[in-house]
Amino acid sequence: MLARKKLSDPKALLTAAASFAATAMLIRSVANDFVPMELRSYFFSRISKLCCKFSSTLIVVIDEFQGHSTNKVFEAVDTYLGTKVTPYVRRIKVSKGDEDTKLIVTADRDEEIVDVYEDLQVSWILVCTEIESSGTRSGGDNNSFSKLERKAFELKFHQQHREKVLNSYLPYILERAKAIKEEIKAIKLHTVVYGAWDSNAINLDHPMSFKTLAMDPDLKMELMDDLNNFVEGKEFHRRTGKAWKRGYLLYGPPGTGKSSLIAAMANHLSYDIYDLDLTSVRSNCGLRSLLLSMSNRSILVIEDIDCTINLQNRESSRESGDNSKNQVTLSGLLNFIDGLWSCCGEERIIVFTTNHKDRLDPALLRPGRMDMHIHMSYCNFSGFKQLAFNYHGISEHQLFEEIEGLIGEVKVTPAEAAGELMKSRDAEISLQGLINFLQNKKTQPHDKDETDKDAKGDHQEGKEKKDGEEEKVKQAEGDKADTSKDAKGDRPEGTEKQDGEEEKLN
Ligand SMILES: Nc1ncnc2c1ncn2[C@@H]1O[C@H](COP(=O)(O)OP(=O)(O)OP(=O)(O)O)[C@@H](O)[C@H]1O
């Protein structure tokens, strides 16, 4: 009774705590002075091992470095945990690299982050310890010691989840981190300078997206599905033994949005663009090293392929001898599209553009080479409505009816329509300007626009075109034995477009 009373007295409690602390310090200093360090560390390690034996917690340590290189798992965890920082975390770090478009937030050292993955709850903590590293001072042979910091993530969880953490949770983090990095990464536009990709690629800050692109809605949807299937197609490509790449041929008159579509694709996928001007490449060898030095998850663009060097005229280059060593040839290029070299690198998209599809070598049009042929054509009413919404935020207006009539009669490119619509901030003035422009065009004699005539085909022409193409293709097959493959086997399955194309060729 007396003892309980004594303990409930705060003064007595304080005195007891102070004397306990003093005793502990005395024991510690006696131990430090009289017990050898080896014995002490042995003693402590036994105690901690004993504690671990009874503990059900497992700790996975992920060091920042593995030998001299950075540990990829550490980097991935760092990125991943940035998305798990909750308001309960008291100390956070914020950073941003040259390549990033957003701030990167991570938890600071010793801050615990709790994560839940399916039925598994784990806790993460970044532990930093100072270590001494010995080195020789420059200019002398004295050994010096400098302090280094060793960083490691400690992952704690119940030991029953060991398999799940190692086989499922950590691989999941690696995948997520890759996706997060792609999201925050600025899209780069690479060009060739002195035969190599410019090391200071610029940020592609192009605002075009599939939302703002004026394009036939069904075709737009089909293309977006195709791109999404491609991105998720790792397993499919591995299973079918096909290189993980996809080719698109964009064709149509100037100003119909081929470049805009490429920007929309890059923004949609967060892929870098490698803009290749073939005239700046000296040989197939140069082309090979350029293509091999491209990063994965990227789009290779070769614009106006019909205008670049002597690609379409292989016969003449053959007659004048094999000059593949000192110039870029079509077969050199095709080797990268579907020859052996195409398997170097993965998740790559190749886009060719042309204003004159009919001028291309049939070998380029061969099925399986370019997976989708996309016709970008003149503005129709739905395209115009998209542009009116982009520039003036309007979905209807009293002048729309008149414009619908005129657009049905006059060939106007989206670039021309966009040019009129951006002349004034006042929607009415712009629309009236477009009407005047269309009326003017209507009264002018028609240009004989061969570009669109030949272009119209791919989606609408059907049988007539197909037969012609088949003949050209057959001719081309014999032409390129080194890169040719069976058209059917070469073609990935799974999209309507491909099946349709296949039908066309059979
Ligand atoms: N389909 C479209 N949707 C929205 N804007 C477009 C479209 N087509 C063209 N434009 C507008 O016109 C401008 C020029 O278009 P773009 O360069 O994409 O055409 P292009 O077909 O690539 O032309 P070229 O064959 O001459 O390279 C774009 O910057 C954009 O403002």
UniProtKB/TrEMBL annotation:
<feature type="region of interest" description="Disordered">
    <location>
        <begin position="439"/>
        <end position="506"/>
    </location>
</feature>
<keyword id="KW-0547">Nucleotide-binding</keyword>
<dbReference type="InterPro" id="IPR003593">
    <property type="entry name" value="AAA+_ATPase"/>
</dbReference>
<keyword id="KW-0378">Hydrolase</keyword>
<dbReference type="Pfam" id="PF25568">
    <property type="entry name" value="AAA_lid_At3g28540"/>
</dbReference>
<keyword id="KW-0067">ATP-binding</keyword>
<feature type="compositionally biased region" description="Basic and acidic residues">
    <location>
        <begin position="444"/>
        <end position="506"/>
    </location>
</feature>
<dbReference type="GO" id="GO:0005524">
    <property type="term" value="F:ATP binding"/>
</dbReference>
<feature type="domain" description="AAA+ ATPase">
    <location>
        <begin position="244"/>
        <end position="380"/>
    </location>
</feature>
<dbReference type="Pfam" id="PF14363">
    <property type="entry name" value="AAA_assoc"/>
</dbReference>
<dbReference type="Pfam" id="PF00004">
    <property type="entry name" value="AAA"/>
</dbReference>
<dbReference type="GO" id="GO:0006950">
    <property type="term" value="P:response to stress"/>
</dbReference>
<dbReference type="InterPro" id="IPR058017">
    <property type="entry name" value="At3g28540-like_C"/>
</dbReference>
<keyword id="KW-0460">Magnesium</keyword>
<dbReference type="InterPro" id="IPR003960">
    <property type="entry name" value="ATPase_AAA_CS"/>
</dbReference>
<protein>
    <recommendedName>
        <fullName>AAA+ ATPase domain-containing protein</fullName>
    </recommendedName>
</protein>
<dbReference type="InterPro" id="IPR025753">
    <property type="entry name" value="AAA_N_dom"/>
</dbReference>
<dbReference type="GO" id="GO:0016887">
    <property type="term" value="F:ATP hydrolysis activity"/>
</dbReference>
<dbReference type="InterPro" id="IPR003959">
    <property type="entry name" value="ATPase_AAA_core"/>
</dbReference>
<comment type="similarity">
    <text>Belongs to the AAA ATPase family. BCS1 subfamily.</text>
</comment>
<dbReference type="InterPro" id="IPR050747">
    <property type="entry name" value="Mitochondrial_chaperone_BCS1"/>
</dbReference>
